[in-house]
Design brief:
Layout lengths: L4 H7 L5 E3 L7 E3 L3 H11 L2 H18 L11 E11 L8 H15 L17 E2 L3 E5 L12 E5 L28 E6 L7 E3 L12 E4 L19 H10 L65 E2 H14 L1 H4 L12 H5 L3 E3 L6 E5 L10 E6 L5 E7 L6 E5 L6 E8 L4 E8 L2
Parallel strand pairs: 3-5, 3-6, 3-7, 7-9
Antiparallel strand pairs: 1-2, 4-10, 8-9, 11-12, 12-15, 13-14, 13-16, 16-17
Helix pairs in contact: 3-6
């Protein structure tokens, strides 16, 4: 499918309006990722072509039932929750935040109590993912944290303009996206429940997700909307951050779009509420119907209960391609479990992407770093380059990758005290 700008806008459309069944009765957008992505493309039109190329690449991996490096292992992703509030009810409790972490770990592992609600026809493709989540235990300076920070703001409500992600605009700045998954909780205007940012090869200072305070977490006693009180908004938006699209392919009912996962039946559009199985539409007029219980549809929280095998593969491939360093972050460990050397060790690689020659700048590495093992692996985890760097601190080391095929590679530097992985993009 050709993804020019206007096609992409149609593909990403799908945040239609419905009405809340409980307080307050205002229009609600289940997800505003569409509008958010449109804004990104308007600001940087080259993103449309880049997005197409990356989708093609990820789809090829997924359809081959192939996973990237590290994808077979369960990984725990450190989360930092930025609570931006104006009124007391918006300053949600630690307990409400912890309840959301519980939901993420259940749903992404397919340990949710409502798996039996998955129709029998779809159970063979229902699958866990390899992702687990924890509130960060160490902050960006190496100090202990509970993974939650708060700020009272004068801003009445936020939108998809990312102001909530900027301290100067009344929000809170993100923590290092290579070590933390940033989640902002605030009062969203316009009835928006949340939005997430797709990961791409181009690093983004705003990467993460935003969820309105009354759709974050689960449990009686919390200020949650009646239809969105089980934490599935954050599950949906994190999945966008892991490169899942809406299940109906965002094609405005044309039955020609794709979410790039073949085990999610094509459907004409989003579903709301909690429909009875089966749901048939113009794209699935017979048989098992559409997968309205998928987390990437728009149903009420109580009706969502599954990812598919290919959705799981796609998320693993995307995160290993675009954010491999996040998957190896040690921010879930107690500060005492991190070496002092690893806290201060840093380096840079330039250019990246490169047409063959990368420069590894170790001027920022402390003299006590010692020898380092350098390993470069391809997408399948095969080692393509390996060497021992003897007392490398203060050096700029040239890495010649011209004999290798274009693509994404992973450079790892390690010894007994440090272990860092970064992504290399070879493109000629």
């Amino acid at each position: 499918m050709k993804l020019n700008f206007w096609t992409l806008v149609l593909l990403m459309a799908g945040c239609n309006l419905t009405a809340l069944s409980a307080e307050p009765e205002v229009p609600v957008k289940r997800c505003a990722t569409t509008e958010y992505w449109e804004q990104k493309i308007v600001a940087n039109p080259s993103l449309a072509r880049q997005f197409q190329q990356e989708n093609n690449y990820l789809e090829q991996l997924t359809q081959r039932n192939t996973v990237n490096r590290q994808s077979n292992a369960v990984v725990t992703i450190p989360v930092v929750v930025h609570v931006v509030w104006r009124t007391a009810i918006q300053s949600i409790s630690d307990a409400q935040i912890l309840s959301q972490i519980d939901v993420l770990n259940e749903d992404f592992a397919r340990l949710n109590a409502d798996t039996n609600n998955t129709p029998a026809a779809f159970r063979p493709v229902a699958a866990p993912t390899n992702f687990r989540f924890c509130l960060a235990q160490v902050d960006t300076n190496g100090n202990p944290t509970n993974g939650i920070e708060r700020r009272q703001t004068t801003v009445t409500s936020f939108s998809t303009n990312d102001n909530v992600k900027r301290y100067a605009n009344g929000g809170l700045n993100p923590w290092d996206q290579t070590r933390y998954l940033n989640i902002w909780v605030c009062n969203m205007g316009g009835g928006i429940l949340g939005y997430g940012e797709f990961p791409t090869a181009a690093a983004s200072a705003t990467y993460g997700l935003v969820v309105t305070y009354n759709a974050f977490g689960r449990g009686a006693g919390f200020p949650l909307l009646a239809s969105y009180n089980l934490g599935r908004t954050a599950v949906h938006e994190i999945s966008h951050c892991f490169r899942l699209s809406h299940i109906w392919g965002d094609d405005n009912g044309a039955c020609s779009g794709s979410d790039f996962c073949s085990d999610t039946p094509n459907q004409a559009g989003e579903n709301y509420g909690c429909p009875n199985y089966p749901v048939l539409d113009a794209c699935q007029p017979s048989g098992n119907g559409v997968q309205f219980m998928n987390y990437m549809d728009y149903g009420d929280d109580i009706c969502l209960n599954m990812f598919t095998n290919q959705q799981s593969l796609r998320m693993s491939n995307a995160m290993n391609t675009f954010y491999p360093d996040l998957l190896s972050s040690t921010a879930c460990e107690s500060p005492t479990g991190i070496s002092e050397l690893d806290k201060v060790f840093s380096f840079s690689i330039y250019p990246n992407p490169a047409d063959g020659i990368f420069n590894l700048d170790l001027f920022l590495a402390p003299a006590s770093i010692g020898d380092l093992q350098l390993t470069i692996s391809d997408q399948l985890g095969r080692v393509v380059e390996q060497q021992l760097l003897t007392q490398p601190a203060g050096q700029v080391i040239q890495l010649d990758m011209r004999r290798h095929a274009d693509g994404v590679y992973f450079l790892n530097l390690s010894n007994t005290s440090v272990n860092r992985t970064v992504r290399l993009i070879l493109a000629r």
